[in-house]
Design brief:
The complex is a heterodimer of chains A (about 450) and B (about 475). Chain A is mostly helical and about 450 residues long. Chain A is built from 16 helices and five strands. Chain A has helices at about 15-40, 45-65, 75-95, 105-125, 135-150, 175-200, 220-235, 235-255, 260-280, 280-290, 295-300, 305-315, 335-370, 375-400, 415-435, 450-455, and strands at about 155-160, 165-170, 170-175, 205, 210. Chain A is globular, with a radius of gyration of 23 Å. The longest helix of chain B is centred in the N-terminal third of the chain and has 28 residues, at about 1-30. Chain B contains 18 helices and 21 strands. Chain B has helices at about 1-30, 30-35, 40-50, 85-90, 100-105, 105-110, 115-125, 140-150, 180-185, 185-200, 220-230, 270-275, 280-290, 295-300, 325-335, 345-355, 390-405, 465-485, and strands at about 55, 60-65, 75, 90, 95-100, 135, 155-160, 170-175, 240, 245-250, 255, 270, 310, 315, 360, 365-370, 375-380, 385, 420-425, 435-440, 450-455. Chain B has a domain at about 220-365 and about 380-485: Beta-lactamase (3-Layer(aba) Sandwich), CATH 3.40.710. In chain B, helix 8 (about 140-150) packs antiparallel against helix 18 (about 465-485). Classes of the chains: A mainly alpha (about 450), B alpha+beta (about 475).
């Protein structure tokens, strides 16, 4: 820790409330837009959905006032807006598929949102201090890696469109990778805050880079092997890139040594190239990525091609909500929700969405700068970066920056596991930001402060 | 740890910048290319989602879209079924637009043409449901009906044009098909119909009037040879030229006989006028060799042979071979050897004679109408070339009148109206009956219609066929329909 930034002690809860009402207002307008465009009438479900979203987000807002009154006021409105817009798009696709409100995916997504907010609230309620998580560093490691390999368990894992990143339990299916993302961030933060001195100080300087000692390469090699395992066995480049990228980024933040990034990039690209040479399914993904419109690629899948045509249809201004044909793309409500937005809201709408995500991530980074303990810094930076990386992997996949993967867009995409995980992630960020922004208790200048008080700042 | 966190934030900004660039690339730079891909279902569905323009003949739709209750919203129908298939073409959900105006005027009919840009903008602002533009055709429904009925089940084609403007009054090609069979929304039925039409050896999808394998013009081409003779200044209609029973061709053992194996006049001589009247092969063979390949080909080119035309369907250019020795020249002068023409081209030759030697550019679309029937664009007749001067055109008219009055084309006579014309009987393959031709115009003194008829393999008359017997009555029916007799 180099500096301790001090933020002016402003709670910002009223700002949050205003922005929250604005977010819900935008969602209601979008919902109205869909109804008018598709059915030409006032949508009957508007009241239910709008009120639902308002109640959920207001409840969370009140919890913040009560339990984390200094938390960052931007996070909740941004997340509410994204969640709400996702609901609108899913509802819009329900209409295109002829599903009624009661049997549609939108209602399920709303139910999942409520559950996700409840769990996030519980996290915020019970976890008074994020540093408590440090105690579970190695539990987190076990749980995280366990979740990662869960889809490989025979009978439990499910292969969906080539990627084996789902598990099925009766009627429920789940992407454990979403939860693993958070748990592993906790583990990495706890582990790196302990070992950062060794990892950052020892080593020789070559070509301006301070190279680590061979024995300190252990952790990164382990993470590399695990991520390659995900790539090869679960056949998902996105998850693999997400976990390894998260680890390398946190390693860099902990050690402040750029050589780790160089080593990480070399390892990952080498490993990915090796996997490309060895495995047919990886080659297929690369073919779909580089030569989407070739007959060979179209014979495998025209999903990406359809998504691109949808985005092209949107152009600069978009067709308008309810006026495009996003339903022509498979998985338009989950993996391909970004092309759905690109088609109906246009490039402008897409830029606005990207800006919301960027704002979300950078508020998280701001929290990492502001918080005073090393563990909190690493955790906040790691969680924020994981959201950024996931956005990059998903959007990059549908816009042909990288090969397509099976990950979902946080908050927007349809899917319970994704909502649960990302709302909890935001709850953690809110908790850390509450610490970061909360003014230090006045130190009694008359007498020496008790020794313990400088160790752990007990708040409220 | 704050410095690396700041740098990590910059990395995040860079990642998002990449996404901004990538999505801009797709939605702005590549958008047009992606939208125009033939496998883009959105574009196809979008064109179905708005009402496609009608194709109108004299105000009555021959192609129109009616609301349908399935995903496509509109079903393309052709109320006149088999009367206009080669004019309208088809608009198939499975195979796209094709076969005629549906293809060439797709932009207007679908409403996506740039010509409709301002109308689209105003539609958007006023909340109008955008619809495609309609086309009003130059076709005269009576002429089309007469041509269709007179041709009957015989293979061949009929084209009629207004000599003064180039407006196409009738365009029939046989065998035909019902375009509705390709526009059904039942994919299986459409595929079956499509396969059947394409497997048919008679090739019903081909518009024989303007495309296909082209035909040898036979004796109708003697009009071109006669025009070349008059243009040379060395001949008039009364010039006396050799017309033996058999013309000996130089440099070869073959010779060129008259079809009745008799001389065309006393002392094996005849006048140019009489030679055309009785379709004297030897006289025109001699004339061709006398004029030379250069002037013969130049005259053909002035009538439009070799030109690429769009009416707006693409017309296969007619052709005279580039290299002709003297025997080949004699054969070409009577429309044999490798001379190949479309019926439209033959009609243009008659039409030029009728219009004081001026070839008008043929066209099929009279006007483009918006969905609320305002005229967006109106065709204006344009001149293609001057084939002969007015005096020579008059001479050719007199000669062609004689053909119908007292020569080989008497079957085209219309009582009370003077008709000009020329018959043709084109040999095209050993052992096959010749194609029967007739081309002409009426009334000769104030031409309102020029027509060309070809009946493949002599039609129902087979080997007995000659243009005068089989094709002339069809031409007569069409001309009568136009001039109202």
């Amino acid at each position: 820790m180099t500096t301790v930034s001090s933020l002016p002690p402003r709670k910002g809860r009223n700002v949050e409330l205003t922005l929250l009402l604005l977010a819900v207002g935008i969602v209601v307008l979008a919902y109205l837009n869909v109804g008018l465009a598709t059915q030409g009438s006032f949508p009957p479900g508007l009241l239910a959905h709008g009120t639902g979203l308002l109640v959920i987000s207001l409840a969370f807002h009140l919890l913040l006032r009560w339990r984390a009154s200094y938390a960052d006021p931007l996070l909740l409105p941004i997340v509410t807006l994204l969640n709400g817009l996702g609901l609108v798009m899913i509802h819009r696709l329900d209409i295109a598929k002829g599903n009624s409100v009661s049997e549609g995916l939108a209602l399920k997504q709303l139910t999942w949102s409520a559950l996700a907010v409840a769990i996030a609230g519980a996290v915020l309620f019970f976890l008074r201090d994020h540093r408590a998580l440090r105690r579970y560093t190695f539990t987190a490691a076990a749980v995280g890696f366990g979740l990662l390999i869960l889809p490989l368990v025979p009978g439990l894992g499910r292969q969906v469109y080539g990627s084996r990143i789902w598990i099925g339990l009766g009627p429920f299916s789940f992407q454990p990778g979403e939860i693993a993302k958070i748990v592993l961030a906790v583990f990495f933060a706890g582990y790196l805050v302990q070992t950062r001195d060794v990892l950052s100080l020892a080593g020789r300087k070559i070509l301006g880079f301070t190279l680590p000692r061979a024995r300190d390469l252990g952790p990164i090699l382990l993470a590399w092997a695990a991520s390659l395992g995900v790539l090869v066995f679960e056949k998902d480049l996105g998850s693999s890139l997400l976990f390894f990228g998260l680890f390398v980024a946190m390693l860099y933040v902990a050690t402040e040594r750029r050589s780790w990034i160089a080593i990480g990039l070399v390892l990952f690209s080498g490993g990915a190239y090796l996997a490309y040479l060895l495995f047919g399914h990886v080659q297929q993904r690369v073919l779909l990525w580089l030569d989407t419109f070739s007959p060979q690629a179209l014979a495998v899948s025209d999903q990406l091609a359809r998504g691109l045509m949808g985005m092209a249809n949107g152009g600069l201004m978009g067709t308008g909500l309810g006026r495009g044909r996003p339903d022509l793309t498979y998985f338009a409500e989950s993996d391909f929700i970004i092309p759905s937005f690109g088609e109906e809201l246009g490039l402008y709408g897409l830029f606005a969405l990207f800006m919301l995500y960027l704002l979300l991530v950078e508020r998280g980074m701001r929290t990492a700068l502001g918080v005073r303990d090393g563990f909190g810094k690493l955790l906040a930076a790691g969680l924020s970066f994981s959201v950024a990386l996931q956005c990059f992997v998903v959007v990059g996949g549908v816009t042909r920056v990288i090969p397509l993967t099976g990950l979902t867009m946080p908050f927007l995409s349809y899917g319970g596991s994704s909502l649960l995980a990302n709302w909890s992630l935001v709850a953690l960020l809110l908790r850390i930001s509450d610490h970061a922004r909360r003014p230090l208790p006045e130190v009694d200048e008359a007498g020496p402060a008790p020794a313990e008080a400088t160790e752990v700042v007990k708040v409220r | 740890m704050n410095a690396p966190i700041r740098r990590l934030s910059a990395v995040v900004a860079l990642l998002f910048a990449t996404l901004l660039v990538a999505s801009t690339w797709i939605q702005v730079v590549q958008a047009k290319e992606l939208q125009e891909r033939p496998d883009n279902r959105r574009t196809l569905l979008a064109t179905y989602a708005r009402e496609r323009g009608q194709i109108l003949v004299d105000g009555a739709p021959v192609a129109k879209s009616v609301p349908s209750n399935d995903e496509l919203k509109w079903l393309r129908t052709y109320p006149e079924a088999r009367r206009y298939p080669h004019v309208t073409g088809y608009y198939s959900f499975v195979y796209g637009p094709g076969g005629g105006l549906e293809l060439t005027e797709n932009g207007l009919l679908s409403g996506q043409s740039d010509k409709l840009f301002y109308r689209r903008v105003s539609d958007m602002l006023t909340g109008h449901t955008p619809a495609g533009a309609s086309l009003e055709l130059t076709i005269n429904p009576k002429a089309q009906e007469a041509a269709d009925k007179a041709l009957g089940n015989q293979r061949g084609a009929v084209v009629a044009i207004d000599p003064k403007t180039g407006a196409i009054l009738a365009m029939v090609s046989n065998p035909d098909y019902d375009p509705s069979s390709l526009t059904s929304h039942d994919t299986k039925k459409v595929v079956a119909a499509w396969n059947k039409l394409n497997a048919d050896p008679a090739r019903p999808l081909v518009n024989r009037a303007i495309a296909g394998n082209l035909y040898p013009p036979g004796s109708t081409f003697k009009i071109v040879t006669a025009a070349a003779a008059l243009s040379s200044g060395r001949f008039t209609e009364e010039s006396v030229i050799p017309g033996p029973a058999v013309l000996d061709l130089p440099d070869t053992t073959a010779d060129l006989p008259n079809s009745n194996r008799q001389a065309c006049g006393p002392d094996n001589k005849t006048t140019l006028k009489h030679a055309l009247e009785i379709s004297c092969n030897t006289a025109f063979g001699w004339l061709g060799m006398n004029l030379g390949a250069e002037s013969f080909r130049a005259q053909a080119a002035k009538f439009g042979i070799g030109d690429s035309l769009q009416v707006p369907m693409r017309v296969t250019p007619s052709s005279v071979p580039a290299e002709l020795n003297r025997p080949q020249l004699a054969q070409s002068a009577i429309g044999q050897y490798d001379v190949r023409v479309t019926p439209l081209q033959v009609a243009m030759i008659s039409s030029a004679v009728a219009n004081n030697g001026i070839v008008m550019k043929p066209y099929l679309v009279k006007s483009v109408l918006s969905s609320d029937l305002d005229t967006i664009e109106e065709a204006s007749p344009s001149q293609m070339s001057q084939a002969v001067d007015a005096e020579q055109a008059n001479a050719l008219t007199r000669m062609m009148e004689a053909v119908v009055k007292s020569g080989s084309g008497q079957a085209a006579q219309i009582s009370g109206v003077s008709v000009a014309g020329k018959t043709g009987t084109a040999q095209h393959a050993v052992g096959k009956a010749p194609h029967a031709w007739f081309t002409g115009f009426a009334p000769a003194d104030d031409p309102k219609v020029a027509v060309a008829v070809v009946v493949e393999d002599g039609g129902n008359a087979g080997n007995e066929a000659a243009g005068g017997l089989v094709a002339a009555p069809i031409a007569k029916a069409v001309m009568e329909a136009v001039i109202g007799r």
